[in-house]
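pinging the channel bc i need a second pair of eyes. not urgent but kinda urgent?? the chain im working w is below, pasted from the shared doc
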Amino acid sequence: MSRTVRWGVLATGGIAATFTADLQGVPGTEVVAVASRTDTSAKAFAERFGIPRAYGSWAELAADDEVDVVYVATPHSAHREAAALCLKAGKHVLCEKAFTLNSREAEELVALARDRGLFLMEAMWTYCNPVVRRLTALIADGAIGDIRTVQADFGLAGPFGPDHRLRDPALGGGALLDLGVYPVSFAQLLLGEPDRVQADALLSPEGVDLNTGMLLGWESGATALLSCSLVADTPQTASITGTRGRIEFPRGFFHPERFVLHRPGHDPEEFTAGSSDAGLSGMQFEQAEVVRALRAGETESPLVPLDGSLAVMRTLDAVRDRIGVRYPADGLGRP
C-alpha cells in the first residue's frame, strides 16, 4: 500500500476526537469517513474535522470501499461487534484497549483477522511510544540486569456517579479495563504473561471494581505490584528494578516523555524521545505504526503483537475472577 492510507473512525466520543486530531498530523494518511449510531452525531463529528462522509450506522462505514482501515473507538462492550463487522467486510482494524471484554472475545477477533489475512492491532499506544521503545532496548541490552520488580499505578479521583458508563457492568465498567489495562500491559511488555495472579478490590453496588490491587508473579522470581482506581488520584508512575539498577517513570508513565536510569556508581541518566510533536497527544506513534505495517504488507505489528494482547486479556480475566467481577457478556451471573 504505497498510496495515502484512508481511515474510517467508528464512534464519535472523546477518544475518537483525540485520535482524529492526532491523525491529521501523520503524513500519508487521511480520514475519509466516520460512523456513529446516529446521523446527527456522525455529521457533527465530520463537520468538526472536515471528514467527507458521515454514516449513521457502523455497517455503512464497513461497506465503504474507500476505507482501508477502521479505528474502533467504542466502549469495550462493543469492541468485538464493531471490529468483527469491519473485518468481515475486508477492512483492517485498529481497536481501542482494553482489546475486548474478555479473552474469549479477543480470541474470536484474532482468529477472524488471521483467517481473512487482515491487519488487526490493539491500540496500546504505550508500546509504540519512542521513550518506551528506548526502555525495552535498554533492558534487552542488560542495562539493569535481570528484572526483579515492576510497580505501576493508574487511578483517577472521580467521582463517577451510578449512571456513568464506568459503573455499568454491561459496558465493561470498572477501573480494570479502562485504567488497569495500562499497568498490566506495561508489566507484560517487560516480563510476558505471569505465572501467578493475585488481586483484591473494592466493588461498587453495581458489581464493578472501584479500586483494585494486583500482584503478578513469574517463575523467574520477578513480581509486579500494580493498581488502578476510580476513587483515588494515584501517582500514575512506574518503576522497574533489576539486579544492576532501576528505571523510574514520572507521572503519566503510559504516554511518557522521559525516564531516569539509576545504577550504582553512576550519575542518574535521563532518556527522552529526542523530539517533540507539539500539540499532539501521543496517539500519532501508534497511527504511524499502523501505516508502516500496512505499507509493508504486515497483518500484525511487532510492537503490539496479537499474542501479547491475548495474554493481557487472559490476565485481566484472571484478575476479574479473583475479585468477583462479572460482565453479562461473560455468560456468567454475578457470584
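so The chain has a mean pLDDT of 95. and The radius of gyration is 20 Å. — does that match what u expected or am i reading it wrong
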